[in-house]
Amino acid sequence: MRAIRADTERLCEIETDSIFRERSGAVRSIFRVHEKDGPVASPQYRALSRTPRLLRPVMQTLGSEEVYIAHTKVNTKSALEGTGWLWHQDFGYWVHDGYPENDMLTAMVMLSDTQEIHGALYMIPGSHKLGLLDHYYDDSQAAYQLPQRAVQRAQIKKILETSGAPVPIVGKAGTLVLFHCLTIHGSGVNMSAESRWQAYITYNRVANRPHPVEKPRGDFVRSTNWVPLQIESDDGILTAGQRGKEREISLQGK
After folding, report:
1. Bridge partners (DSSP) listed for residue 123
2. What is the pLDDT of residues 221-252, one digit of tens each?
3. Domains of the chain, earliest start first
4. Alpha carbons 167 and 135: distance in angstroms, whole number
5. Is the pTM of this model over 0.85?
């Protein structure tokens, strides 16, 4: 995880349209870190997305060896100022992107130790079986630059009253969590003195790639790179980090 965290620190210094910030200026989300090109291209995250310990269970869960990355995101919930996410389903954001089926999977990798006080993610067990729920735009999270999509309040209240208790997703750095795009989840503010860093890699079957839509969202949230992924070396993250250091030394010498 050290190599990935080090590269995340580098990414946080970049100014680009695929990085979103809190109103305080702190980085909230960094998108599209898995590609070879672009201002936030990261060899470490690219290697992470293809490591066998991650990609094999993803392929098994999706039932296909032909999968691609729909998008990647790094959430850097800053100490004491990182704000929350309202209860939502990820497909509540993606429903207008042209995907034939709401059968997509996200792999969340903890880049730092996460406890509830860090603004941990909470998930409602079994909620992916409820189907796609009605979402609305909520701009009450004043600390964030953009409005959020959230499950209608009356609906989520009823679900919380009748379902099992939401489960906090906590663990050590390196913990992997796979969840369906219809799983209801959300998080609170980070009340700790440590930032909570987590990487989110969303996978999709190539056969479920999006149809053309009238006003497609940017490539950083709706990838059109549908080339099937190949499982790569288990030590690819460390190798990528070493190549990055060598390139930095080379550039400094010019």
Report:
1. 167, 185
2. 999 999 999 999 988 898 886 655 554 544 35
3. 2-248 (2.60.120.620)
4. 21
5. yes
